[in-house]
Amino acid sequence: MKLPSPIRLADSPNPLSLPSTAATLRGLDFGSVLSQALSSSNGYLLSQLANIIMLNSSFPLLGEGGSSSGAFTAGLLPSKLAPLMNSLATRLATLRGGQNGQSAVEKMTAAARQKPTAAAQSRHEFDEMIQEAAGRHGLDPDLVRAVVTAESDFDPACVSSAGAMGLMQLMPETARDLGVADPFDPAQNIEGGTRYLAQMLERFDGDLSKALAAYNWGPSNVEKGGSLPAETRRYLEKVTRFRRMYAQGFSTRA
Q: Alpha-carbon Rg of the chain, whole angstroms?
């Protein structure tokens, strides 16, 4: 429920501080990105890719059969982490003319294997909150997960340029109406956002498309009729895609 959406890493005009990187990475699945990176002579890009793998190692990206989900910013199953890190280490060591690169990446690999990241632990907790709130308000948990993903990508500190806050991007006046004292508290935000989504479904007689459009654009705008703005149409597509993804077995849990 934010206009416009906050900027994401993948949307940044220069996500890795390299003029050619955004054009190279945008629209590619993880396998393609990794393949291009391993053939690159850019040590900085390889180092950043190693960091991304390490930081996101608790989230599924590649299935056990090796197929790619197509989401570059997701992470890796533990069984896939070691060979990828070894490949990156070898490539970095070759570029640097020694073994320093391998040593650094091996350290990151060991750290990633020790325990889930804080983000992974938070997502696990958020998923339990989503399950409970969805049950209280009679909603499909996958729908709520999809809204959280589209709104904030599970960032409880997210603030849009329009002032929407937290996991489900509640506007200040909406948060007040819902009795949400702290929009940055995950439990309050999820409870408030889920209740608001349920209210929109009731207001629009169960029409999910209108309810989601109202969540993003505002119910009074939807009731006036007319064409939806492009941002809201993209929002509906994202929520639908994420809901299908969760229904097919993708998990927010580590």
A: 20
- My answer on whether 100 and 179 are in the same domain is no
pLDDT of residue 122: 78
Would you say the C-alpha torsion 236, 240, 241, 242 has a positive or negative sign? positive
Which pLDDT score is estimated for 192?
A: 98
- Out of 125, 128, 151, 202, the active site residue is 151
What global pTM score does this model have?
A: 0.55
State the number of CA atoms in the 13 A half-sphere of 156 facing the CB.
18
Are 147 and 243 within 8 A, CB to CB? no
Domain count, the chain: 2
State how far Cα 250 lies from the chain centre: 12
Query: Per-residue pLDDT for 5 more than 50?
Result: no
191 is annotated as an active-site residue: no
Name the residue range of residue 91's domain. Answer: 9-115
